[in-house]
Amino acid sequence: MANNPHRPIRKICIVGGGTAGWMAAALMSEHFKGTMGAIEVVESDDISTVGVGESTVPPLLELIAKLGINEQEFIRETQGTFKLGIDFRDWRVKGENYFHPFGDLGARVDLSDFYQLWLKARANGYQGPLQDFAPAAVMARERKFMLPYKAPNTPIASASYALHFDAKLVARYLRKYAEARGVKRTEGMVQDVALLPNGFVEKLILKDGRTIDADFFIDCSGFRSLLIGKAMQTGFHDWSDWLLCDRAVALQIENETPPMPVTRAQAMDCGWRWVIPLQHRSGTGYVFSSKHLSDDEATAALLAQCEGKPVTKPWIVPFKTGVREKLWEKNVLGIGLAGGFIEPLESTAIHLIYRGMDFFFRFLPDRDCDPALAAEYNRRMIADYEEIRDFVILHYCTTQREDTPFWREVKAMEPPASLKRKIELFRVNGTRAEGLDELFRAVSWQSVMEGMGVHPRGYHPLVDRIPFENVPEQLDHAREMLRRVVADLPTQEEFIARHCAAVTPEMAA
């Protein structure tokens, strides 16, 4: 029998800091606990990070818990606020809004999803809006907040939430966390990458001539993609034919009103504008198509829409939507922007960093980096990117807007076959095409489909098991119970002041 000795990894090098690099370092420092090789982060103070990823999705809270970080402390240190979902404005048609909530939408009834019961009620003339049954949506509408697990046995217990935060403060926080657990930081700029005859990366060559070797390398170099893109020469799945936006202009503004517990996504003439409220200021920006709008025009449109006084100068962020054909090749793993990017409409960039590291731990290699591990990693991660891609395209391809060339073009687009199949299935009776371990579950698809005017022709037949006579009255009672509970909650501003108020920006700097 052939001898196949285990050759454990002795050192992992992370190229690039920022949110991706320090999140990867923090997770490895916790998982390895100093017993599975050294971890070194190589980053340069001369290279600025994108720094606009300030909105997240609920799985971020799992990351915080896995790291053993106190959530209140994390929110204070990063000037964080709570996010109950996304407020979409003017996407289907101008003047019409809808909400994508986190958590549940109503409660399961008998064998049926709540949405199916609501569909039958609507078919019988019921007028109650769907989001009146989503606790996160009702809290957001009233600017209220409570940790759902602090309200068991109430209608808001099934809500969920994510966070808004200052991305640069998050990177600083995670760097401090990682360095306290033995991660080494090296200041330097990577100038060249030396490869072994088998195509593995041997070492990095820094601008000042120093070299850094390791057994495994994690590329967190952002859109430059120094290792997984340039050194490994992996191809790129370009999705810009479906997602036309390729640039953003970003800005920070003063808060003129107390921060709402939502991310706002306001459709504009050539893309959309975000507003992400933090405790001491808000982030805002215009994601746009350079084919339809110049940088100067986008900047002027953003400044004209700002609700608060700018506290920074606008800056431009060019990006390319798509994903590497391989996120793991030989002894290189691409994480964050180095591996792929889907425009920020559903705030998934930070989630994909965490997801990429989570799968890395599942398929953790030794020094030989068996290709079977990389192949399965790539299959699972690219499926995640494609799922998110389809969900984001859904917001565009179902629009009814025709008031600008941009919206006429996205309305006329042919969506990916996978998304087309999902829409066609949903139109039958609200059935969802389910994938494996997806980020966006039924509530997300139901909320966006309904918000964008994609309505099922019928409902699932199993709903007819439920006696219908008293259903409208029961629905009204549930709406009223939820409304009353939310009315008694503190505002987000009150909740933060009581539990997790940040220090002033001057003290945090």
UniProtKB/TrEMBL annotation:
UniProt binding sites for FAD: G17, G18, T19, A20, V190, L337, I350
Example GO molecular function: monooxygenase activity
Annotated active site: K83
Binding positions (7-chloro-L-tryptophan): K83
Protein name: Tryptophan 7-halogenase
Residues that coordinate or bind L-tryptophan: E346
Entry coiled-coil feature ranges: none
InterPro entries linked: FAD/NAD-bd_sf, Flavin-dep_Halogenase_NPB, Flavin_halogenase, Trp_halogen
Keyword Acetylation applies: no
Record keywords, A-Z: FAD, Flavoprotein, Nucleotide-binding
Domain of life: Bacteria
Keyword Flavoprotein: yes
